[in-house]
Amino acid sequence: MLSLFAANFGLATKASRLLFNAAKPVVSGYHRVGLTASGVTRSFVTTPRVAFPAAAKKAAPKKTTKAAAPRKKAAKKKTAAKPKVKAKPKRKAAPKPKPKPKIVLKREMLPPSSPGGPYLQFAKEYHAKYPIKSLPEAAEAMKKCGAAWNALDKSEKEKYYEQYRKAFEEYAVKRAEYFATVDPEIIKEINRRKKAKGKSKIRPPPPPVEQRRPMTSYLQFYHDYRKEHSQGASDLKILAAEAGKAWRELPEAKKQVYKDQYMARLETWRAQYGKSAAASA
Which domains does the chain have, with CATH numbers? Predict the structure, then answer.
């Protein structure tokens, strides 16, 4: 039995080798010839897949679906037409104010400078005689000038006091003319720059004494009381307190005299300087 099985197995292997060699393409000249599937015979060794290739699968037919019927739109309910509202006219925006041009300050726009006091009048004359030639000599020259001023007596100094009074009168006239004609915007610009530097503002000169508003009835009483009692008073605060107490204890008839005098002075002042005072304020 074993010998028969071995003989059959040997024959089977030989047949499979022959089939394998037969399946190879045969080269004939310049053409390559291959065996087709029809030329292969089935044996007990070959499989059905090799002998008979599987048939191509047929594509499944596509399912066709009927288009759904369009839905009917619901009828819209008719609503009453709203009355048209007229649009309000748009308000025109207020025009933006134009920026003010920057003021460039020049020397002639500035107020006149105040004259120096009596000592400065003397110093001008002294340094004209003894000019300072170099910066290191300036400190020594100023010391000598101060010593020369202190060496003068009152009669010699009176000359320089008189020079100062004349210079100040001229300065007061120029200052009044300047504030009467200058543009207020220039004053604002000067004060803005002074404030930035921490300096005091410039202000227009006060009006003369005769143009000032008259004193009230109580201030006139205090002025009279101070003339009578200022000799024995050592402190102005005590004197003011005593004057206030005396005013409160004053009979009403005497108070009325001061009030009438004040009203008369006020009417006169309003008639003469009221308009100019209101304009300057």
Answer: 100-205 (1.10.30.10), 208-274 (1.10.30.10)
